[in-house]
Amino acid sequence: MGDCKIGLALGGGSARGWAHIGVLRALNEAGIYPDIIAGTSIGAVVGGCYVAGQLDALQEFALKLTRRRVLGYLDFNFTGTGIIHGQRLCDVLDERMRDFAIEGLSKRFVAVATEIGTGHEIWLSRGRLVDAMRASYALPGIFRPVRIDGRWLFDGALVNPVPVSVCRALGARYVIAVNVNSDSCGRGTVVAHMEGHAQIDEPPAPESGMLARNGRAVKKLLQRQFFGRSDNGPGISRVMMEAFNIGQDRIARSRLAGDPPDVVISPRLPAFGLFDFHRAEALIQNGVTAAKREIEDIQREIAARQSVSPVLEHVM
């Protein structure tokens, strides 16, 4: 019998990444336990928590989130290199995982990040787990970049949104990829011409009193920036996220075509936005449903790989 190492590549996707929790639940329930996990952005957070034995705690945290609580975790930073400092979120991770080092985990784990300036794809496979996760999810312009080993790092989705290549490099013979953005941008159709007139939105009326002295006005402003205005117009943060997501989607399609996994699990999430962290229950269930669609094929293919020696498989 061959030793078929299973790799799991968890992609980026902001709030949609809660679906990764459901995928892991369904795989484990079916007796499928990955040996190697590579994660990008939110995929690094879920994957890191899973390998550290903290998936239950992460799920509990996610299920308690409301819009108000999501805003409460966003420590805004108007003078630095990102809108959000990120310390409050880091404190949540630190509370349970401050002492975890990647090289001491029970399974192989890599978080993917991007180096500022060079664009190098950085594989974080040692050091503090929390630092690696934080670097991997540091969206440009939203979160502050993270300095590790003299490098300034931010979101790995800029270079490797669904890190199948990492699993292959670490010796996985069967790779399961989870792409939570597969239906978020459609197929990128070219629209030759659009009829109609441009609409210039008027700025919202200012609240009474100085904004800096009016906590209520600040709160409303932040809500508009992250969740959009009441007229469905996107806030600046949503615009940045959507632009990043479109680029991530194009890169993911290209890389998955060039280095295809053995199976792709694609939760159907068109109704979920990038900031819908408060909708964890539905997102997790969508992950479960998506994984169950592929379970029989995965089990059959893994069994077939285990019955073939690595040398014979290479020849075939």
Give me the secondary-structure topology.
Elements (H helix, E strand, L loop, with lengths): L5 E5 L8 H11 L6 E5 L1 H10 L3 H9 L3 H6 L9 E3 L2 H11 L10 E8 L5 E4 L4 H8 L4 E3 L2 E3 L2 E5 L8 H6 L4 E5 L36 H13 L8 H23 L4 E3 L14 H27 L3 H6 L1
Parallel strand pairs: 1-2, 1-9, 2-4, 3-6, 9-10
Antiparallel strand pairs: 4-5, 4-8, 7-8
Description:
This protein has 316 residues and is α/β, with parallel strands linked by helices. It contains eleven helices and ten strands. The protein has helices at 19-29, 42-51, 55-63, 67-72, 87-97, 129-136, 164-169, 215-227, 236-258, 280-306, 310-315, and strands at 6-10, 36-40, 82-84, 108-115, 121-124, 141-143, 146-148, 151-155, 174-178, 263-265. The strands form two sheets. Strands 1, 2, 4, 5, 7, 8, 9 and 10 form an eight-stranded mixed β-sheet that branches. Strands 3-6 form a two-stranded parallel sheet. Helix 1 (19-29) packs across helix 10 (280-306) and helix 2 crosses helix 3 (55-63). The chain is globular.
Compact overview of the structure:
With 316 residues, the protein is an alpha/beta fold. The chain has eleven helices and ten strands.
Structural class: alpha/beta
Please, how many helices? 11
Total strand segments: 10
**Whole-number average pLDDT?**
81
Low-pLDDT residue intervals, each spanning 5 or more residues: 187-194, 196-215
Listing every helix as H and every strand as E from the N terminus to the C terminus, the arrangement reads EHEHHHEHEEHEEEHEHHEHH
Main sheet: strands, sense, barrel: 8 strands, mixed
- Principal-axis shape equals globular
Q: What is the straight-line distance between the termini?
A: 16 Å
Proportion of β residues?
5-15%
**Radius of gyration using CA atoms only:** 20 Å
Helix amount: 40-55%
